[in-house]
Amino acid sequence: MESLTAYRDFQVKFLNGIQGLICECIDARSLCDVLSLENANELERISIRECDNMESLVSSSWFCSAPPRLPSCNGTFSGLKVFFCHGCKSMKKLFPLVLLPNLVNLERIEVSFCYKMEEIIGATDEESSTSNSIMEVILPKLITLELVCLPELKSIYSAKLICNSLEKINVYRCQKLKRMPICLPLLENGQPSPPPSLKEILACPRQWWETVVEWEHPNAKDVLRPFVK
């Protein structure tokens, strides 16, 4: 069963059967204009499409009220499995760093045609200026990471990202991206090995991938080359 909720001059669709939220062509600057994030711990699927005025997933005003609840933020997005973001022309940062410890069930991230997107995981100014920021993030169930046509993307995450369940990485036309923060599992001799679940890496353009992109371990490219298409 689907229910439709109107908010100001846009509409948001809640899919009760799969705990899903679809935002299409809405005039919101963040999800905080759509729902209370304190009640977002049961959402399994979020799809944000062609919301041209949306600048971030979570507004800065929410962060101002968040510190008493840190670092758990009441489990916000702790049930999230699938996240899509497509065609949001003003979006610059996707996931705020403070929410990353909650994304233990996230399986799929797909971001495409967001022409101002600069960071997938971004810290606030306050987090950047302190030494207490999370330096290593684990997304234990992430299977798919797909980044398509993000011409301003400079960072997936500034520190280390551990995703040992990855099956597919797709990075297409993100030519300002220079670093892949994903840490590969290490063998006893200290050399990297592919995540055991990895099936393929789709990368374009090829020259950018081979000559510009750097991984956490200097030998990672050689190890991953059989998976690259």
Provide structural commentary.
- With 229 residues, the protein is mostly beta strands.
- It has one domain.
- Helices cover 9% and strands 28% of the residues.
- It contains four helices and 15 strands.
- Strands 1-2-3-4-5-7-10-12-14 form a nine-stranded mixed sheet.
- Strand 1 and strand 2 form a beta hairpin.
- The longest helix has 6 residues.
- The N and C termini lie far apart (41 Å).
In short:
The protein has 4 helices and 15 strands. The chain is mainly beta and 229 residues long.
The number of distinct β-strands equals 15
Alpha-carbon distance between the two ends: 41 Å
- Low-confidence stretches are 1-11, 67-72
Mean pLDDT: 82
What brief labels describe this structure?
229 residues, 9-stranded mixed β-sheet, two-stranded parallel sheet, 15 strands, 9% helix, globular, disordered N terminus
Fold blueprint:
Blueprint: E1 2-7, E2 10-15, E3 20-24, E4 45-49, H1 60-65, E5 82-86, E6 93-96, E7 108-112, E8 119-122, H2 125-128, E9 136-138, E10 144-148, E11 160-162, E12 168-172, E13 179-180, E14 200-204, H3 206-211, E15 214-215, H4 220-224
Parallel strand pairs: 3-4, 4-5, 5-7, 6-8, 7-10, 9-11, 10-12, 12-14, 13-15
Antiparallel strand pairs: 1-2, 2-3
